[in-house]
Amino acid sequence: MYLNKAFIFGNLTRDPEVRALPSGMNVCSFGVATNRVFRDREGKKQEQTDFHNIVVFGRQADAAAQYLKKGRTVFVEGRIQTRSWEGKDGEKKYRTEIVAERVQFGPGGGGPSTRGAQAAGRGGSDEAETAEAPGAGIEYPKDDINPDDIPF
C-alpha cells in the first residue's frame, strides 16, 4: 500500500485566487507559510519558514475564496502533487503543490465556523447541517487559560 498525505497548519501568504476550469468547475489556489523552530549545533534557536502552494477544487474552492484572506490561519489536508509544463521560452517548468481534500478555517476573520466550512466543502447545505451546533449559545470566558488550572 502507498500513501500520499499532507497536513499543513499555517498562515495564508496571499489572498486566494479563483479560476474556472473549461469544465466549469472552480479551482482556488493560495499559499500557506509554516514555521519550524529548532536548535542548531551551537545550541542557538533557529527558525525556518516553508512556503506551500495549495490548490482546492469545487465547492471547497468557493468557500475558501469567500472566507480566507491573507494572514488567516488554515488547516489543510490533502495530497502532494508535482506537475510540469513547458514555459514560453521552451524550458520545462515544475510546480509542487498540495491538492486539498479538506480545508478548515482557523480562528479570526469573522468567517464561518469550522463545522460550517466542512459542510460547505462536502457540498452539504441541509437545514440540519447549517443549524447551530450544540452549545453554540454558551458564552465562554474571554480570559487567558492558565495551563496549571486544567485538571488533566
Walk me through what this model shows.
- The protein is mostly beta strands.
- It is built from 3 helices and 6 strands; from the N terminus they run E-E-E-E-H-E-E-H-H.
- It has a 5-stranded mixed beta barrel with strand order 1-3-4-6-5.
The major β-sheet equals: 5 strands, mixed, barrel
Record field, number of beta strands: 6
Enumerate how many helices there are, as a single number.
3
Output the structural class: mainly beta
What is the gyration radius calculated from CA atoms?
19 Å
Q: SSE string, helix = H, strand = E?
A: EEEEHEEHH
Notable features of this structure?
mainly beta; five-stranded mixed β-barrel; 152 residues; 6 strands
Topology of this structure?
Layout: E1 6-12, E2 17-20, E3 26-39, E4 45-57, H1 59-67, E5 73-86, E6 92-105, H2 114-122, H3 127-130
Parallel strand pairs: 4-6
Antiparallel strand pairs: 1-3, 1-5, 2-3, 3-4, 5-6
Short description:
This protein is mainly beta and 152 residues long. The protein contains 3 helices and 6 strands; from the N terminus they run E-E-E-E-H-E-E-H-H. Helix 1 packs antiparallel against helix 2.
